[in-house]
Design brief:
This protein is of the alpha/beta class. Helix content is 40%, strand content 18%. The protein is globular, with a radius of gyration of 20 Å.
């Protein structure tokens, strides 16, 4: 079922989560372990992230460096198919990114997903690889997510890159996109950022999942700002529980977010990461309960390879 239809058919807040593909060389059992630990709480859908190729340099110890291009977390499409058929009660939402794809390669990926019976896609530009300071699209690729959404919308209307194809099928993809309550790190201000979010919705996206945030006031202000410029689609809050003491410094650097002073003080009082892990659960439960009272359509949790904290949160909340 399309995610927007899941949202529209129920009045209660749904639960979903995001998975990282295993590191290259590992197997899919880690995905199953996380899903099995959460399935009793009836997740409505699972997002599976996509990771672009990156350049690494191998030192051979003789003064020579070997340049290699690798994908550290491959397998998004295969994992999505495996989840779909192992857990038929849960919808799967593979991520599709601009980086590393030409428009033709995007079309082939969409055809594969359609053949697999996967009708939901989360369309994002994606970050620049670690060895690049700025995002650089492929030649004849998408520079921004709004045009990626437009290509998916075109396929829903039977329009392909080869305009001479006859008797084409219409896909039925439901497209979600990302939103940033504290603005994207590359945007000069919130208004500029919202303009590009509106472009993604106008291109055909049907719901938004936000970047993580730790202060619900950020979400409430973001939702109000979106509505004020004509964005009417569901806005799903994305939540990530704090897991370690170090994360109060790392997460703001990586995701350009603020962490409330009260949460910082709570984490800094912790003597161990186990204590910080429990603080993260406590904080996220409070966030979740307030967001449910506000009437959000879904609570979406970023697992980052860890399920126990999410299990405790959803057990307390749902």
């Amino acid at each position: 079922m399309r995610i927007i239809d899941l949202i529209n058919k129920t009045e209660k807040t749904l639960f979903s989560f995001e998975l990282l593909p295993p590191l290259r060389g590992h197997n899919i059992n880690s995905i199953y372990r996380i899903t099995d630990s959460l399935i009793e709480y009836a997740p409505s859908f699972i997002n599976v992230t996509y990771h672009q190729e990156e350049v690494v340099y191998k030192n051979h110890g003789n003064g020579l460096l070997e340049k290699k291009t690798i994908r550290k977390r491959p397998g998004t499409v295969a994992i999505s198919a495996a989840i779909k058929y192992k857990y038929p009660s849960i919808e799967v939402v593979p991520h599709l990114i601009c980086g590393g794809f030409t428009k033709a390669e995007t079309e082939y990926a969409l055809i594969d997903l359609h053949y697999l019976g996967i009708d939901n896609i989360f369309a994002i530009r994606g970050d620049a690889p670690k060895n690049q300071q700025i995002f650089v699209p492929e030649n004849n690729g998408h520079a921004h997510a709004d045009t990626l959404v437009s290509q998916i919308t075109d396929m829903n209307q039977g329009k392909y890159l080869d305009g001479e194809l006859l008797n084409t099928f219409n896909a039925n993809f439901c497209v979600g996109v990302g939103g940033y309550p504290e603005k994207h790190s590359e945007s000069p201000n919130q208004a500029y950022d919202l303009k590009y979010l509106k472009a993604k919705i106008d291109a055909g996206a049907e719901y938004i999942i936000t970047q993580m945030f730790f202060d619900n006031k950020k979400y409430f202000a973001f939702e109000k700002a979106c509505r004020s410029i004509g964005i009417t689609v569901p806005i799903i809050p994305g939540l990530k529980p704090i897991c370690t003491i170090r994360e109060i410094n790392v997460l703001p650097q990586v995701f350009s977010i603020d962490i409330p002073e009260e949460l910082v003080k709570m984490v800094l009082k912790c003597k161990t990461n186990e204590e910080a892990f429990n603080v993260g659960i406590e904080w996220s439960i409070a966030q979740s309960e307030e967001l449910i009272r506000f009437g959000v359509p879904v609570l979406h949790y970023f697992s980052v390879g860890i399920a126990e904290n999410i299990r405790q949160i959803v057990k307390a909340v749902f």
